[in-house]
Design a protein that fits this description.
The chain is α+β, with helices and mostly antiparallel strands and 792 residues long. It is 24% helix and 21% strand. It contains 16 helices and 38 strands. A seven-stranded antiparallel sheet has the order 15-18-19-21-22-29-26. The protein has a four-stranded antiparallel sheet with strand order 31-32-33-36. α7 runs antiparallel to α8 (270-286), α13 runs antiparallel to α14 and α14 (445-455) runs antiparallel to α15 (497-515). It starts with 5 loop residues before the first strand and ends with a strand.
């Protein structure tokens, strides 16, 4: 066990102010069991009877530059802080952070708004498809999307291979940004990948095995997606696609409350709900480190239990009393909802303590960076370029206006992911949105500051995966738009921009949830990625916008690229902009209302006005804004303002937000969401949603199968997906002939895996698909049967 009331900490004030990185760190810390030593200082290899765990601080940091010492080296001195203070880890960490003045320092000075970063990441993932390289006549495809394999190449770790953490990240981003092109050309093809490959890592070609991929295979025929992923897809697709439920019908959920909650949501199974609650209680009662592994799981069950008064623990029951005490001994008249919430709080701190760079002391003043005007090479960049035949790795140039000393906080790695070493990781920021939600519910300023240190003013584009040294390279808005051999500043896996898009959106939505005192809220679904922590996805259900303060329910989140441009009073665009925004539109009686909230990231007051993109929405010349919320309460003192497609000129205090409900909006186009939420969308017939057939069992080729399914996100968004599990070793090509009504389509696929995707017209009835396999020189498929017939 760990007793946090007596703790050791390195003293960040004992050395000169510096930016913490592997090369500048003076201390190492670890936790270990307490072992016995004999009189001659030999280790007795048994822990003490009470099995205590004890903190250690050691210096210099082993392997770091300061550890290269000789007998002639000067004595190495350092200071420790010994803290003896009653309380749990949450309160003690908060005390230390306050002591050293760690706070929400970051703003958008170097990067501009998070909204523009989201737009750039989506453009990168789309291969900047609406801009053509004049030399090639095609988009640059710096993201390395492979249309045949339906995902982005895993080149940095193992070229010509593909590894995904699931389809839901990009699917949510497509809906929130209302990007039909992205849904059709990225999210939907990748969903098909995930529904047909047996493993999330897929190696379709004979390629060098580097050992970095893990478990790559090339088997098809089923899906690797987890129970919770499939349940989330069923809900996200509005129940229009029975395929997801048909697969769930064949699976047994794990006896864990996330899986059992997923079962309840899909099947409305009251027994599964009761089992989920019992599982959550049992997990708390059992204690142990694994209780605090997933903050998202606890937030999920908190959301479910908050309005259920029957979920009160029986404190006369020893088991329930002990379970509550595991979380918080001080709650008066606790409910299980409060207990689950405290579990979420403790889980956030557990994650924060071993995954986040937590040095509470940020240097004041300015710091120099990027020697020679280029970003330091990431450790693997040189060997990677040589191995794959690219030019010699050179440092990526820093933007000229970033050179010279800058405020130290812009370079500090505080608040970033740290895995094993004190390095700043850019992927893996999955928990930061959850941090903001727990911070709001529990009124925890430390979690709020950690959340914002992860994202605010941090990235202008997709930054790659990780780098160990502080640099301003991440402030370059065109950073990702380069060939891979120039991406020497980090381990650059383009495919991770897929998850990064969802992380950005999760943080932005959760930050407005925090800043509005939970008055701007959109329902989430949990993304349980394969081998990766949870993230929240949004977009399939409406939320609310200040409904308790004169606002409305039924608001759909809507963040198409470039929806607002932030300008000064003379109309010039502010660059960089300190203003981030979130927007949505009303439904029902409020269908002509645009909702928008703006937050000032700077600590000082900023004045701005926002011009709406008239390709998306317009307002009459005299649109009177009658509902406004400044610094959260509805504010009658704000005068009514008339606008022609522009908000009023707003003076917004530092770190504060303002929100508007703007009536009389005419929405010019919502290309994806209008189809997805069309009231006359029709659920597919469950009996036609999935088919599979195979050669007759008495033939030598009975192992070959063809699978077909219909996937529908809404009206006009239905597609037939058909694939064969035939291998490249035995097959030259597969021909798909699909007919529906008078339409007839032939597709010949000569590249493994053999598959086709064809739009399905919901008005024309059944689609018939004939699938014919052509064998290679060593295999002649029999003439009867030589085809499969699917009726969808």
């Amino acid at each position: 066990m760990v007793d946090p009331s007596c703790s050791l900490f390195s003293d960040p004030g004992s050395t000169a102010p510096r930016l913490i990185s592997w090369n500048t760190a003076h201390f190492g810390m670890m936790m270990s069991q307490v072992y016995q030593f004999s009189d001659d200082e030999a280790l007795v290899d048994t822990p003490l009877p009470d099995d205590q765990i004890q903190p250690y601080v050691f210096a210099p940091l082993m392997g770091a530059p300061g550890s290269y010492m000789t007998s002639a080296s000067a004595p190495y001195e350092f200071k420790l802080l010994y803290v003896q203070r009653p309380g749990d880890r949450v309160s003690i960490q908060g005390y230390l952070v306050d002591m050293f003045g760690f706070s929400d320092l970051r703003d958008n000075t170097g990067t501009g708004s998070i909204n523009k970063t989201i737009d750039r990441v989506m453009s990168f993932l789309s291969d900047n498809h609406d801009h053509v390289n004049p030399l090639t006549g095609k988009p640059n495809n710096y993201a390395m999307w492979d249309a045949e394999q339906k995902y982005y190449d895993y080149w940095s770790d193992q070229p010509a291979s593909f590894k995904t953490f699931g389809p839901l990240y990009g699917l949510s981003a497509a809906v929130i940004t209302d990007d039909e092109w992205f849904y059709t050309n990225r999210a939907l093809p990748h969903l098909e990948y995930c529904l047909s490959r047996n493993n999330n890592a897929f190696v379709p070609y004979d390629t060098e095995i580097t050992g970095q991929l893990g478990s790559g295979v090339r088997d098809l025929g089923t899906t690797f997606l987890s129970y919770t992923n499939l349940a989330a897809l069923h809900g996200f697709f509005q129940g229009l696609t029975p395929y997801f439920k048909s697969v769930l019908d064949t699976k047994t959920p794990q006896n864990s409350f996330p899986d059992l909650l997923a079962k309840w949501r899909v099947y409305d199974d009251s027994a599964a709900l009761a089992a989920a609650i019992a599982s959550a209680k049992a997990k708390i009662h059992a204690g142990g480190a694994d209780v605090w592994s997933q903050v998202h799981d606890w937030l999920d069950i908190c959301e479910l239990s908050k309005d259920d008064p029957t979920l009160n623990p029986d404190l006369n029951d020893p088991d329930e009393n002990i379970a509550v005490a595991h979380v918080d001994n001080d709650m008066a008249n606790p409910t299980w909802h409060q207990t689950f919430l405290e579990a979420a709080h403790a889980s956030a701190y557990e994650i924060m303590s071993h995954e986040v760079i937590l040095s509470p002391s940020v240097p004041t003043g300015t710091a120099t960076h990027d020697p020679g005007g280029v970003a330091p090479l990431q450790a693997l960049a040189g060997g990677r370029n040589v191995r794959y035949g690219y030019p010699e790795a050179v440092g990526y140039p820093i933007l000229p206006d970033r050179l010279g000393p800058v405020p130290a906080w812009r370079l500090a790695l505080n608040g970033l992911q740290s895995s094993g070493t004190n390095r700043g990781e850019f992927i893996g920021l999955f928990n930061w949105g959850a941090f903001m939600r727990v911070a709001s519910i529990e009124n925890d300023p430390l979690l709020k500051s950690i959340g914002r240190w992860g994202f605010v003013g941090r990235f202008a584009s997709f930054p790659g995966d990780n780098r160990a040294e502080p640099s301003l390279v991440m402030e370059d808005p065109n950073l990702a738009e380069n060939p891979v051999w120039k991406q020497t500043f980090s381990t650059f896996l383009p495919c991770h921009a897929w998850e990064f898009s969802a992380e950005l959106l999760d943080f932005l939505i959760s930050d407005f949830y925090y800043s509005s005192n939970q008055q701007i809220t959109f329902p989430w679904r949990s993304i349980k990625g394969t081998g990766i922590p949870l993230c929240f996805l949004y977009g399939d259900r409406p939320g609310s916008f200040y409904k308790d303060k004169g606002g409305d329910d039924g608001v759909r989140i809507w963040l198409p690229a470039g929806l607002f441009t932030i300008r000064d009073n003379s109309g010039i665009e502010q660059n960089p902009s300190q203003i981030d925004y979130i927007a949505g539109y009303g439904t029902g009686a409020n269908e002509h209302t645009l909702y928008v909230a703006f937050i000032n990231r700077s600590a000082s007051s900023k004045a701005f006005k926002a011009t709406v993109n008239t390709d998306r929405v317009t307002f009459p010349a005299n649109s009177n804004i009658t509902r406004k919320w400044l610094n959260n309460p509805a504010t009658a003192s704000l005068t009514s303002i008339t606008i022609p497609n522009t908000t009023p000129y707003i003076g917004l205090p530092g770190k504060q937000m303002v929100a508007f409900a703007i009536p009389n909006a005419t929405f010019a186009t919502r290309p994806l969401q209008d189809k997805m939420f069309a009231p006359d969308s029709v659920a597919l017939d469950a009996t036609r949603s999935i088919k599979a057939t195979s050669f007759a069992a008495n033939t030598p080729y009975a192992e070959n199968t063809v699978n077909g399914m219909l996937l529908s996100l809404g009206k006009g968004l239905t597609q037939a997906f058909i694939y064969s599990n035939a291998t490249a070793r035995n097959t030259v090509s597969v021909t798909f002939h699909c007919t529906q009504g008078t339409s007839s389509v032939y597709v010949v696929d000569k590249i493994f895996p053999y598959e086709c995707s064809i739009p399905f017209d919901e008005t024309k009835g059944q689609m018939n698909c004939t699938v014919t396999l052509k064998g290679n020189n060593s295999v002649n498929y029999p003439t009867s049967p030589s085809y499969f017939l699917l009726n969808l």
